[in-house]
Amino acid sequence: MADYKLSVRYENKKAYDTYSKVLLHIVNLRFISKGAQAVEPLSADDEQPLVETTTLRAISAITLGELREVDLGPGLLTEVHVQEKRSEAA
After folding, report:
1. Whole-number pLDDT of residue 49
2. What is the secondary structure of 13-27 as a DSSP string?
3. H or E stretch at 51
4. Which DSSP state fits 67?
5. Cβ contacts of 78 within 8 Å, gap of 6 or more
6. H/E element, 29
7. What's the fold here for domain 2-82?
8. Is a pLDDT exceeding 80 seen at residue 61?
9. How many Cβ atoms from other residues are within 10 Å of residue 27's Cβ?
10. What is the rounded CA–CA span in Å between residue 27 and residue 3?
11. 3-class DSSP assignment, residue 78
12. Terminus-to-terminus CA distance in the chain, angstroms?
């Protein structure tokens, strides 16, 4: 399994109003067919309220390119990046 950072940007307020309450459900519906799912709730920060992020956990057979091809819907722009592994304290 591999972890990826997914960022979803709403193109405008209309897209936010349409999708914000159901975005996590849409993310999981669209990515589950690829063998990936969100493992934490979507979150936004005060500086970029129209961008929400989460961690996707995907099966090893899925490529970063395949994840980047997933379309969540009109007005939603996505970025997927490999998430750096956290080192555990000894």
Report:
1. 74
2. HHHHHHHTTTHHHHH
3. strand 48-58
4. H
5. 6, 7, 8, 9, 68, 70, 72
6. helix 23-32
7. Alpha-Beta Plaits (3.30.70)
8. yes
9. 24
10. 15
11. strand
12. 23
Q: What predicted TM-score, i.e. pTM, was given to this entire model? A: 0.85
pLDDT at residue 89 is higher than 70: no
Annotated domain spans of the chain: 2-82
φ and ψ of 48, to 5 deg: -135, 70
Judged by phi (left if over 0) then psi (alpha if -120 to 50, else beta), residue 35 lies in left
pLDDT of residue 90 exceeding 70, the answer is no
**Structure-block tokens of residue 11:** 């193109």
Please tell me the predicted confidence (pLDDT) of residue 45. Answer: 84
- The model's pLDDT over 28-54, given as tens digits with 9 standing for 90+, comes to 999 998 999 999 999 988 877 799 999
**Torsion 53-20-24-43 (CA) sign:** positive
Nearest alpha carbon to residue 54 among 30, 74, 33, 75 = 30
